[in-house]
Amino acid sequence: MSELFKLWQKLSRSKKYRESFAASVVKRLIPLQIRVLRKQRDWSQAQLAKESVLTQGVISRAEDPDYGNLTINTLVRIGAGFDCAFVGHFIPFSELGRWYTALVDENSLRVPSFADDVYSADRKPADRKPVGQAYTFDLDYSTVPPDPIVGSGSFKLAHYPMSAPVPMSLIEGTKNIDSAYKQKMVIINSEKLYA
Fold this sequence. Notes:
Layout (H helix, E strand, L loop, with lengths): L2 H9 L3 H26 L4 H8 L3 H7 L9 H11 L10 H10 L27 E10 L15 E5 L8 H6 L5 H4 L2 E10 L1
């Protein structure tokens, strides 16, 4: 039984449970991601505050999962400090479940700054070295009917390092796809990821 299916069973218990789960994810993971991004850049809270045009106290509260009163304006400014985007948007529980069960560790929360982004126009192709491959997968629906939990859309997985073999190992390692569906995955696109 996949992690996503187990989570879906829990989410099916009640609307109150879904509300609590969603609130917990937001209140715990946003502060964690702020801390992860700050450490990724080897910054102090004071440095992030300076880059975000906020106070160190605001950054300290933003990294505290028990604070729980972050404003969208604060999150947008912290995103600007990291030179990345904060986008808060409403999603269905199936998407939240897929995202949540795909989190492996804190490194899953890392985000590059604009200058380090894959498509940064400021970087010359010669300055960029390939570090991985991103594959877009979809289910072969000629043999497997669409699943309400897995969904019917394609999804993208990053594959590191480039020297690693067959991307099928990526599929086998995913927690949110049942084994019957893993056998029916097809690659519909691939692209190199650059550092």
